[in-house]
Design the sequence.
């Protein structure tokens, strides 16, 4: 007998998330933050993640975690990472300085154990009214109108759960992926690393991530602070039954580290196999994959958990919009295309970084070292390396346009690129959105229109701007950001309208033609008929993000504009949800 999920206030079934790690927890908070009921099932014992390998949270993840109110608690709990430095044969090659990032509230990485990250996000989940239930998924039937999941609870009970949507965020050995019959594709040989945590008595900086390359192998250090580090050592193979001993790490440190140090007793050690796999699809009807369930890759650059957090946010606002009826169901198709391409890029870059660090031949080592030192000297390493490491270079441009203008070659943005604007759910707490007033805040649930005058901040611009705003549905979020100088190199000299998604990526760049902007809204899958249709009366206002806002002024400048009543529009025929979503 099928036992449906608990009925909530609107009679809807909660979204079922399988996996209570960082990705599943972030996704649950995203949905709860928009009033979508969620149920989280996790089969991992609560204390089993104390020895996890994900320890770095990069700036882009902190920006997105700010949406649920988790960025600041994480920043307080973690150790700040200001630079990533590379060595070859104990001599410096170059350094990427995260502290030089200018377009983010978080110009640093954080080194923090994964279980502490989970603690912080779980606290947010509980504050939003959610919880994690301990149980194991034993089956999934996705052949009907809605998926049905079999769960064995820790108290011996079993249950069949019918849900509108199921998300597998249950790791590299995902049961959801397996039961859904989705292939986990990959290529290349696995690379082995011995990893462990413990104290080091030596001259190592507490705010610097080190990669040390030699012809004998690679060594990495990540600082937890207070003299404690995560060590990662490449090993050619491992056939022993026991975990790698402290003596192995000490010997490798003596051979490969640029500075001497004595490793103390290690808390734990293990062998990590750096596989490279991406699921053939991240969506099968009403079932989605996120995080390690959909992709795994080398630990080089510590991109794994961070990529999963971007999965969670990308899927979260889209799924919430479809459930609430403000976005068309077709927008869910973009989750697979956007995030699978992003994962494949990370697979490529981390695989290259891993292979470059394991070069053994004198010629290839010499070529690598010459290229990196040249990139350091010319500033190319900082220009391209910092956005890559921070994950600021993630773009949702059409695949064919990626080769026309690679991200990083120019500061000008295109549709799909990240814009330094940030959002925060109202349920994330009072206080400012991520960015603290230095950057515009956009709507956390749906697209926002940003208006840019370019070099034409005059009466004609005001007239065009107000005419364009008058055509938007009442209540649609819109801001004039013309006075903020930080957008000049990004948006250019000409007036334009920018349709920005809740995750800060650009949905469309248009001129000031109302028809062009309205078409962009339709292409962004906005359900215009679901927006408020109240008549405009009196005088309305539009917020201008000016220099005062950039300086952290308490209130933005407000520009009055004459109200206009939009032309009536024929109501759109709603898409039949069952067919559209399957």
Sequence:
């Amino acid at each position: 007998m099928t036992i449906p999920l608990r009925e909530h206030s609107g009679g809807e079934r909660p979204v079922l998330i399988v996996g209570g790690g960082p990705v599943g927890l972030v996704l649950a908070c995203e949905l709860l933050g928009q009033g979508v009921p969620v149920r989280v099932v996790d089969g991992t014992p609560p204390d089993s993640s104390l020895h996890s390998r994900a320890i770095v949270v990069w700036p882009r993840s902190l920006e997105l975690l700010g949406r649920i109110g988790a960025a600041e608690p994480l920043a307080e709990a973690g150790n700040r990472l200001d630079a990533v430095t590379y060595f070859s044969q104990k001599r410096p090659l170059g350094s990427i300085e995260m502290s030089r990032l200018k377009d983010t509230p978080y110009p640093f990485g954080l080194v923090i154990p994964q279980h502490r990250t989970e603690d912080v996000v779980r606290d947010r989940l509980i504050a939003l009214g959610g919880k994690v239930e301990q149980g194991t998924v034993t089956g999934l039937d996705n052949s009907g109108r809605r998926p049905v999941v079999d769960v064995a609870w820790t108290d011996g009970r079993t249950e069949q759960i019918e849900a509108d949507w199921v998300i597998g965020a249950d790791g590299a050995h995902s049961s959801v992926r397996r039961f859904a019959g989705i292939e986990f594709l990959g290529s290349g040989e696995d690379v082995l690393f011995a990893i462990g945590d413990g104290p080091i008595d030596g001259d190592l900086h507490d705010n610097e991530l080190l990669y040390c390359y030699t012809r004998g192998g690679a060594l990495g250090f990540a600082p937890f602070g207070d003299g404690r580090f995560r060590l990662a050592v490449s090993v050619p193979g491992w056939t022993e039954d026991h975990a790698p001993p402290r003596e192995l790490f000490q010997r490798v440190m003596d051979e490969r580290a640029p500075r001497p140090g004595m490793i103390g007793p290690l808390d734990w050690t293990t062998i990590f196999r750096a596989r490279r796999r991406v699921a053939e699809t991240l969506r099968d009807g009403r079932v989605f994959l996120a995080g390690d369930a959909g992709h795994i890759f080398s630990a080089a650059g510590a991109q794994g958990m961070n990529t999963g957090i971007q999965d969670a946010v990308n899927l979260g606002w889209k799924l919430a919009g479809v459930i609430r009826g403000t976005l068309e169901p077709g927008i869910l198709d973009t989750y697979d295309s956007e995030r699978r391409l992003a994962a494949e890029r990370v697979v490529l870059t981390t695989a290259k970084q891993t292979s470059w660090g394991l070069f053994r031949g004198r010629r290839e080592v010499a070529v690598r070292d010459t290229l990196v030192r040249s990139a350091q000297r010319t500033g190319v390493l900082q220009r391209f390396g910092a956005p890559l490491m921070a994950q600021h270079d993630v773009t949702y441009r059409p695949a064919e346009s990626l080769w026309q203008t690679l991200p990083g070659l120019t500061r000008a943005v295109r549709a799909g690129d990240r814009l330094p604007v940030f959002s925060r759910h109202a349920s994330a707490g009072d206080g400012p959105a991520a960015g603290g007033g230095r950057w515009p805040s956009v709507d956390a649930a749906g697209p926002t229109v940003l208006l840019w005058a370019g070099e034409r901040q005059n009466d004609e611009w005001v007239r065009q701007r107000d005419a364009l705003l008058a055509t938007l549905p009442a209540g649609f979020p819109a801001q004039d950001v013309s006075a903020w100088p930080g957008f000049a190199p990004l948006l250019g000299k000409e007036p334009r309208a920018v349709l920005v998604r809740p995750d800060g990526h650009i949905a469309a760049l248009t001129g000031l033609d109302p028809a062009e902007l309205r078409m962009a809204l339709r292409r962004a899958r906005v359900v215009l008929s679901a927006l408020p249709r109240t008549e405009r009366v009196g005088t309305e206002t539009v917020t201008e993000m000016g220099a005062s806002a950039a300086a952290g002024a308490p209130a933005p400048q407000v520009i009055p504009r004459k109200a206009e009543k939009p032309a009536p529009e024929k109501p759109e025929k709603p898409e039949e949800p069952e067919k559209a979503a399957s």
